């Protein structure tokens, strides 16, 4: 072993400690960078002579140290756990938000809610029954009845508007999915090329993982890392990204609310752009939550909340018209003519939108039983009692409000539980992957001291060589 070999050993330590310090500095610099995964420099010793030979010597000491790798301290299992939790949370949150918006649209209970307006209408009927000869009471009845019809129509329009907005949101989300998938495919190519050259692409991997997490939130994507460093992204059991190849998604199905509320209702689905007849079997993510909100009614109340609410609004409107018309048509007006229908529907429109008052003239309101006289108001009293009937429109509407409230509360509760699980998964991942500045400070101090030690070794060897070269053989001169 050469006398100068100690210089190489000390130099290797200087280089390795400086490289390790660079890694620690990179960690500290990105301590607050979202998505950054901490890195660690791994040291390995450089052994002495490996193959014995006639003239080789080995005193047992190695030849220094080197950085064998710079590892990215990610945990694939914690990453996968976070993506599953994110997928579930996003799905349930989308549904909870839709229920919350829908519940707010109904405005129950409130002074402007349908329940209040129904009560006002029944009270107006009873007022006319008590004073059938008062024109002011009849005018109030017409206005309160029109207010009920208008309120039901407004509620239906609000539901339809929410559906349209939800579909537009879904289209925008699918566009985000396609954009993220294209970015992942591009990063796959760059990472594979860098890895093949022997370098590291940790920062690119961090960027890619953020995009995969975004896809998990949107469509419940899962990821599988390839040996070359690239990553496959699966959605619904099929590859959205495979290496540098990317598939795209698009929206198919119903484009208007009327198509959803038709019989049978047409659903909205996400399909593969190259296979438009094949729907993507989404099991989680915000897009899946949106699709469940956009779904048609199924007749059991478990369909899409918007279509179900629209169907029940139609049922309430039909119930009001049927029950009031059934009684009003048996009554007679002050001039003795039959009452006929009080409410009517506009052909071609849903019942909730098409409901209106058929009468314009207050004198055409029929409140008397046949043969009971012009001042009889018994039929009006019976109509007014529909408000307290167990099978009346009020009872039906109350059921709608209560059912929606229960479903909204359940959706909100499930979303909170899922979000708590996601938060736990985030903390577990951060505990593994995030930068601990205290730990990095200790590491930097250790690297600094090791660097100083290597420098002292270098100085000592330099002094030894100086003695050997400049002082040997000069004794006695």
Task: Outline the fold blueprint.
Elements: H1 5-29, E1 39-45, E2 65-72, H2 76-106, H3 114-130, H4 135-196, H5 202-219, E3 222-225, E4 231-235, E5 238-242, E6 245-246, E7 249-253, H6 257-261, E8 268-272, E9 275-279, H7 286-294, H8 305-328, E10 331-332, E11 343-345, H9 351-354, E12 355-357, E13 368-369, H10 378-384, H11 393-433, H12 437-471
Antiparallel strand pairs: 1-2, 3-4, 4-5, 5-6, 7-8, 8-9, 10-13, 11-12
Helix pairs in contact: 1-12, 2-4, 2-5, 2-7, 2-11, 3-4, 3-10, 4-5, 4-7, 4-8, 8-10, 8-11
Keywords: Bacterial flagellum, Cell projection, Cilium, Flagellum, Secreted
Subcellular location: Bacterial flagellum; Secreted
Family: Belongs to the flagella basal body rod proteins family.
Can you describe this structure?
- With 477 residues, the chain is an alpha+beta fold.
- Among the domains are: 5-73 and 435-471, no CATH class; 79-125 and 168-297 and 395-428, no CATH class.
- Helices cover 58% and strands 12% of the residues.
- The chain is built from 12 helices and 13 strands.
- It has a 4-stranded antiparallel sheet with strand order 3-4-5-6. Strands 7-8-9 form a 3-stranded antiparallel sheet, covered by helices on one side. It has a two-stranded antiparallel sheet with strand order 1-2.
- Strand 8 and strand 9 form a beta hairpin.
- Helix 8 runs antiparallel to helix 10.
- The protein starts with a helix and ends in a 6-residue tail after the last helix.
């Amino acid at each position: 072993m050469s006398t100068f070999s100690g210089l190489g050993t000390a130099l290797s330590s200087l280089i390795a400690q400086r490289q390790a310090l660079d890694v620690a500095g990179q960690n500290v610099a990105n301590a607050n960078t979202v998505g950054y995964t901490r890195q660690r420099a791994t040291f390995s010793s450089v052994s002495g002579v490996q193959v014995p030979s006639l003239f080789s010597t080995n005193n047992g000491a190695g030849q220094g140290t080197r950085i064998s790798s710079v590892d990215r301290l990610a945990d694939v299992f914690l990453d996968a756990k976070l993506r599953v939790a994110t997928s579930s949370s996003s799905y349930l949150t989308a549904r909870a938000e839709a229920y919350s918006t829908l519940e707010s649209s109904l405005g129950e209970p409130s002074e402007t809610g349908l329940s209040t307006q129904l009560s006002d209408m029944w009270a107006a009927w009873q007022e006319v029954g008590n004073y059938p000869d008062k024109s002011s009471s009849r005018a109030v009845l017409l206005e309160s009845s029109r207010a009920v019809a208008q309120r039901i129509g407004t509620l239906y329009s609000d539901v339809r508007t929410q559906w349209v907005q939800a579909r537009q949101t879904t289209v925008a989300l699918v566009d985000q999915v396609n954009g993220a998938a294209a970015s992942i495919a591009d990063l796959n190519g760059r990472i594979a090329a860098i890895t093949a050259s022997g370098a590291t692409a940790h920062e690119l991997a961090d960027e890619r993982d953020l995009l995969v997490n975004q896809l998990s939130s949107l469509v419940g994507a899962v990821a599988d890392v390839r040996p070359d460093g690239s990553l496959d992204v699966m959605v619904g059991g099929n590859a959205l990204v495979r290496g540098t190849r990317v598939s795209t998604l698009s929206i198919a199905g119903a484009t208007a609310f009327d198509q959803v509320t038709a019989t049978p209702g047409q659903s909205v689905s996400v399909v593969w752009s190259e296979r438009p007849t094949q729907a993507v079997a989404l099991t989680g993510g915000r897009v899946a939550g949106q699709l469940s909100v956009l779904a048609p009614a199924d007749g059991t109340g478990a369909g899409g909340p918007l279509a179900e609410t629209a169907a029940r609004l139609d049922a309430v409107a039909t119930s009001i018209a049927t029950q009031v018309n059934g009684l009003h048509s048996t009554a007679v007006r002050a001039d003795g003519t039959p009452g006929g229908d009080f409410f009517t529907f506009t052909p071609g429109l849903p019942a909730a939108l098409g409901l209106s008052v058929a009468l314009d003239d207050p004198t055409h309101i029929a409140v008397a039983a046949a043969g009971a006289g012009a001042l009889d108001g018994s039929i009006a009293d019976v109509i007014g009692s529909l408000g307290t009937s167990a099978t009346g429109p009020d009872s039906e509407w109350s059921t709608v409000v209560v059912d929606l409230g229960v479903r909204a509360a359940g959706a909100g509760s499930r979303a909170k539980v899922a979000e708590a699980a996601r938060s736990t998964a985030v903390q577990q991942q951060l505990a593994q992957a995030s930068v601990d500045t205290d730990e990095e400070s200790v590491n930097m101090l250790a690297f600094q001291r090791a660097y100083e030690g290597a420098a002292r070794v270098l100085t000592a060897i330099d002094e030894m060589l100086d003695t050997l070269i400049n002082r040997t053989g000069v004794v006695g001169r």
